[in-house]
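pasting for the record
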Amino acid sequence: MASEVSKIYSDIAELLNVARAKAYHTVNSIMVETYWKIGQRIVEEEQGGSSRAEYGTKLIENLSKYLTDTFGKGFSEANLQNMRKFYLTYPEFPTHCVGNLSWTNVRTIIRIDNKQERDYYLKESSAENWTSRQLERNIKSGYYHRLLSAQEKTNDTEKCLPTIINTKEFIKDPYVLEFLDLPENIEGKESVLESALINNLQKFLLELGKGFLFVARQFRISTETDHFYADLVFYNYLLKCFVIIDLKTTKLSHADIGQMDMYVRMFDKLKRGADDNPTIGIIMCTDKSETMVKYSVLQESRQIFASKYKTILPTEEELADMISKENTKLLSDNS
């Protein structure tokens, strides 16, 4: 009898939790759209739709006082300016992108100057349900630019891409692993790096991107005579394939590339399911030579990638310089 009562309690509690979550989501969506409409109304009143206004500040100042007196907190001059900017940034309400976005996330995104970058974060943060902390971390770590850098290195030829879906939307260069709390120089400590990634698996999955599911660490691949161990194995349900990650605490070498090539071939032969796409291998290293990339199987392979990683969060300037240097190397090697 007691167990039946306990079951009733838990069932009703679950119903209430689901209802509250749906109610919060609905209210949040309505408020975001309302803030866009407030921004629209402010722009129409102060500017007649033009991009300049002489008395805009005064209007917002007086409106802030009125709304605060009438409705309470949430209508500071700064927040009204954000609503105005939201409308000016998106003159057509982005219905398809803001369903899961909080107002905090919207305010963060509209501060981004670059339109392509801004639209990327709007779409991805909504689709992936990023929290405001995750969004801020991804912007600060150059998530979009690192993804873009990897895309630029595969745009020259379609043979670098799998047959079903474009991997350039899933591979970054570099990866930023500042959440591991490890020093920059961990040469010779692959096991330390691997353990730190496992201990911070949720954050690592967020850094890897969408669709990744953890399978195993030190995954054994056996033949008739030998056993081999892949550092980390994931499955990506969007790519529909296994993803092997090999961790290196030194600069990329030919031996590293050869090892990953073998792992990928073995996985395709021994582990790949009938409905799976070809296995992808990512070698994560501290540095690499684009010349080596050009003159190795990486250049021709549609399944193997090499990406650098950083264990500290670079500044925006350092990240931009890093990506610029990598692209300059690539252009030089391809000329």
